[in-house]
Design a protein that fits this description.
18 helices, 599 residues, globular, alpha/beta, five-stranded mixed β-barrel
Length: 599
């Protein structure tokens, strides 16, 4: 069946995003029920009060059914699912996390790797066995619309998520619907149900400018399409007002943002950070970016990463440490350029954390190529490395290349994993105090998850009421993947403002007379400590006000009092002074006249 188009009268326009089209405006492929009708049940088998609940989904009132949504893949896919959930709930549909309780399954798919697509196929088979109406969304149907698994089910493309209500309604009636044609970008202000109320996943663009030989996502998401700076800034304002505490910028390649509309990533980032609360209650996380498009903006991006409301974390996939393999992948950069990105950001951004990706066993990868990759990972000892084996994706150039033997691919993956897992990236953090932003419950169901400014995961104990707050945590122990801490202070708006004032003080010197305006006490300066004793890196410093008070001399206190005099106070003092001077002159004049008379 061909993609359905709007059939509105006059042939112009369409439905407002997220709103139902009239039933006669949606082209569908009605399914005929060829199965034998079941015998009618005895009247006493089903009570009248239960007839509606036991009726087939197609016989229920539209908008009263329950939907199960399963999402595979990246944060962009997660955001799409949240938008679809928002539109469905806005029209009365219920959501459930129990597949068996649902009247329809909505499966949002990922085409990056074979395992995720295999999981999708398994879930589709399971749904068919359970006679569940199915709607398949995401990159798989968009990039592989003729896939056998998609026969007989409804599909919705990545740029048609604003019509999910129509598709669900028609599918529940037993119709097969296909919406895959690309159009304008879905609106950012559609109804949305966040999986985590405190985290907004904000897509800044779709598609990319690359042409990697192994990537299937380009087939699905297409060429670069960026949202305007104004629309993204407006969305940021909205989600902050809704209580969001973390904003994740999501994209297939964040670094390429805006090149299709005449702007760039630094312009967007600077516009967004202006909207973030000064008390650092809402943090920004910049999404994955490939090296080519940030090389020319490294200093500007580093400046944004140093901003108090931006996590000093960036995901920069390298995929291989071998230039020969990178060329075969058509990645458009060298390992040396990747090193430049890492070195520059590490130098310019205190506490910078970088995550990267590696593909083991790409076609043509030799032992020497692999050793160069291992050397790169050893040189930087990244805290996060996502290691995957090469999976040929149908329709990509790499699928036609001569493959490395499977056993060699697995061996290299195991070897690199062992190298990576031997690192201890968080050694030395124990005993330190860090500000963390708490937004999630850990998978163990016991701890809360907070992140430092470097986006290091800190597990702490505390009530769920702490979600969405910021706190000072003392690190008690470190693990391979995260650290554990104890909350020693929950930050409120009052003490956050105090923290910010302290952080904005200039570095101190060994001159005791200047210590009242810096981050060190006079005693510290008196001991000859230099500016390195100050907190100039942006970490939170709490000081004893009484100690600072004792360090001030009487003269300094007098100067402090004078500095607070207003205009009226100064005018009164001047008046008193002039009056006294006038009286003195008059007295001298009178005294002079008396003396002259006696002479």
């Amino acid at each position: 069946m061909e993609d359905i188009e709007d059939l509105l009268a006059g042939g112009v326009g369409g439905a407002t995003p997220g709103f139902r089209l009239p039933l006669n405006s949606v082209g569908v492929n009605p399914k005929r029920n060829t199965s034998k009708r079941s015998l009618p049940k005895q009247k006493d088998e089903v009570a009248d009060s239960n007839r509606d609940s036991l009726a087939p989904p197609s016989m229920k009132i539209p908008g009263t059914q329950t939907i199960y949504i399963k999402t595979f893949g990246c944060s962009h896919n997660q955001s799409d699912s949240e938008y679809m959930a928002g539109q469905l709930t806005a029209f009365g549909y219920g959501l459930t996390e129990v597949p068996e309780d649902a009247d329809l399954w909505l499966i949002n798919t990922c085409t990056v790797k074979s395992p995720s697509q295999s999981a999708m196929s398994t879930l589709i088979t399971r749904g068919r066995s359970g006679k569940k109406p199915l709607v398949i969304a995401g990159c798989v149907p968009q990039g592989s619309r003729d896939l056998k698994e998609l026969e007989g089910v409804s599909v919705v493309g990545v740029q048609q998520i604003d019509r999910v209500v129509e598709i669900v309604e028609e599918t529940l009636k037993g119709h097969e619907v296909r919406l895959l044609n690309r159009k304008t970008l879905p609106a950012l202000d559609l109804p949305k149900v966040r999986r985590n109320n405190f985290i907004e996943i904000l897509p800044i663009n779709v598609g990319c400018l690359g042409a990697c030989t192994y990537c299937k996502t380009k087939h699905a998401r297409g060429h670069l399409g960026s949202y305007t700076v104004e629309s993204l800034v407006e969305r940021v304002r909205t989600v902050i007002s809704e209580g969001v505490k973390e904003i994740w910028l999501s994209s297939e390649d964040t670094g390429a943002y805006g090149r299709d509309i005449g702007v760039n990533l630094p312009i967007l980032l600077n516009a967004i950070v202006k909207e973030l609360p000064s008390d650092q209650s809402t943090m920004l996380r910049i999404g994955m970016t490939n090296p080519p498009f940030i090389l020319e903006h490294l200093k500007e991006i580093a400046a944004v990463l140093r901003h108090p409301c931006v996590y000093t974390f960036l995901h920069v996939p390298v995929q291989s440490g071998s230039d020969a393999v990178l060329t075969a992948m058509n990645r458009e950069y060298t390992s040396g350029e990747f090193r430049t990105v890492v070195d520059t950001l590490t130098e310019l951004v205190p506490g910078m954390q970088i995550a990267t990706d590696i593909i083991c066993g790409f076609p043509g990868e030799t032992d020497e190529d692999f050793s160069q990759t291992v050397g790169l990972i050893k040189d930087y000892k990244f805290a996060q490395v996502h290691i995957s084996q090469f999976y040929p994706r149908p329709g990509t150039p790499a699928a036609k290349m001569k493959k490395v033997q499977s056993k060699i691919v697995k061996q290299r993956s195991r070897e690199l994993t062992c190298v990576f897992e031997a690192f201890a990236p968080y050694t030395g953090m124990e005993g330190k105090e860090e500000r963390i932003w708490i937004t999630e419950i850990a998978t163990d169901g016991v701890h809360l998850v907070g992140h430092t400014k470097g986006y290091i995961q800190v597990l702490v104990s505390g009530p769920e009421s702490m979600l969405g707050t910021s706190a000072i945590a003392r690190i008690t122990s470190v693990g391979r993947w995260s650290v554990f801490g104890e909350v020693i202070e929950t930050l409120t708006s009052t003490n956050i403002k105090t923290q910010i004032r302290e952080e904005t003080k200039p570095p101190c010197t060994s001159d005791v007379s200047t210590c009242e305006t810096c981050n060190c006490s006079a005693e510290s300066c008196g001991e000859g400590k230099s500016g390195e004793a100050c907190n100039v890196s942006g970490d939170i410093t709490r000081q004893d006000e009484k100690t600072q008070g004792k360090s001030k001399t009487k003269e300094e206190e007098k100067q402090g009092v004078v500095s607070h005099w207003g205009f009226v106070d100064k005018a009164l003092v001047c008046g008193v002074f002039i009056s006294s001077l006038t009286i003195l002159v008059l007295m001298i004049s009178i005294a002079s006249k008396v003396l002259l008379r006696h002479q």
